[in-house]
Amino acid sequence: MTILEWKGGNVELDEEGFLADFSQWSVEVAHALAEREGIELTEEHLKVIHMIQAYYQKHKVAPMLT
């Protein structure tokens, strides 16, 4: 496991760089993960992330991306 350190704390990442425990997700963690990948997370990104999360909560599967 890898630890992502950010100004608000630490979160564990799995071997692929995803959160090991989704309950640790927050907008601040999303920003830290994006920064780690060299991405500047915008409000448009967050809208898409929230839409995907809502879809997953309703259907228990990620939406198909085309």
Strands, total number: 2
Number of helices: 2
Structural class: alpha+beta
Mean pLDDT equals: 93
Write the element-wise H/E pattern from the N-terminal end onward.
Answer: EEHH
Quaternary status? single chain
Strand fraction equals 15-25%
- Estimated radius of gyration: 13 Å
Major β-sheet strand ordering: 1-2
Q: Overall 3D geometry? A: globular
Please mark out the parts with pLDDT under 50 across 5 or more consecutive residues, or reply none: none
Task: Describe this structure as you would to a colleague.
The longest helix has 17 residues, at 43-59. This protein has a two-stranded antiparallel ribbon with strand order 1-2. Helix content is 41%, strand content 15%. The model has no long low-confidence stretch (mean pLDDT 93). A hairpin with a 2-residue loop joins strand 1 and strand 2. The protein has helices at residues 27-36, 43-59; strands at 2-6, 9-13. The chain is globular, with a radius of gyration of 13 Å. It is built from two helices and two strands, in the order E-E-H-H. The protein has 66 residues and is of the alpha+beta class.
